[in-house]
What does this fold into?
Amino acid sequence: MKSMNAIRDRLLWIIIGLEVAVLVVILTLAIVHPHKAAAPAPAAVQTTTPQQQFNAPVIEPVLFAKGLASATSIVATGTPGDKSLFVTERQGFIRTLDNKGVVSGPVLDITPKVLDNGEMGLLGLAFHPKFKDNHYFYAYYINRDKKTVVARYTMDPATNTAKASTEKVLLTLQQVYGNHKGGQLQFGPDGYLYIGIGDGGSAGDPDNHGQDTHTWFGKILRIDVDHGDPYSVPSTNPFARSTDTSVKPEIWAMGLRNPWRFSFDSKTKDLYIADVGQDKYEEVDVQKASSKGGENYGWRCYEATHSYNAAGCKGADQYVMPMLEYAHDNKRCSITGGYVYRGSAEPALVGKYLYGDYCTGEIFYASVQNGAWTQTLGIDTDNAISTFGQDNSGELYYADVANGNIYHLTDSAN
It folds into this structure.
């Protein structure tokens, strides 16, 4: 019996020794030959409610104005001391809201030019950084010939209105389908005009526009409206020096499905892009202020971080994955991008990025906690949120495209 125990003990030590040897080999192989990385994923995103956070803001919309029709953008002039907000209506009007929320106008009427149909119409507005001096503003619309038009207008300071006859067209783009038009206009911290154009429509980007540098579809463009006629291309654009003359030098970023909406953080100068997904996921992309442009956000190869149509696509590491995403759970369907709050009235919101879902009326805010992005459901409204806006003080607003109301976002916990 004693000899049998000795044999058993020896066999046990042999087995342990073999297991250790195998473990050493596995670890060595893992170090010398690491596995190829999978598609880069966004920072971990956790959806919470304010009740799960200490001293968390509680979003409360306050009615600010009513009586609008199909509002598509809310914009301030950027002029210090100017409390006015301007709202574009899809059919082709621009109207003014004063500090009491009263609708006046129209400031501009281009309804005879505009194709008001579904996702088409007057979609975007931006004021020149020197608007106080030159009175220039810019509009993005789809015309009766189904072309995207970006045009400049001149405001009459005596009447605070503009005539359609002051229009100077900067660029046009022939559309084919009826959806995914983008429409965002924003002047960046560099003074250049950024233009968001969707992939042109249908489903699944059948023409692969998002990945094609020979078209403006599925891109954010960057142009210099202060030089050239009607504009010039900044020499620092990522494709400005391409030897392929058919590549569009205006392209700043690509791989987008329908950027609705994008905005710059007024403090960090980072660019936040809310890109509407196809069937399953919505995403927010962030381009750092230090970026030299040229980011490819992956569409149609990826829908958010998930492979969608890999035909002709590159390796996953060639695409920039979103900061955060959310799935089409609980009837969510289409993201509406907002702003990073930099106002003073709601201190608990400072530094948080606010955005919503068009279908559910939910408004979220996102922030970094312990190195990871956390998305918090601020409030679940019954609004069809078509756009967010920011006034010259950094306070935030949003529009309900269905009921014609504009709401001011507040923190009821403040």
Remarks:
- The CA atoms of residues 39 and 306 lie 8 Å apart.
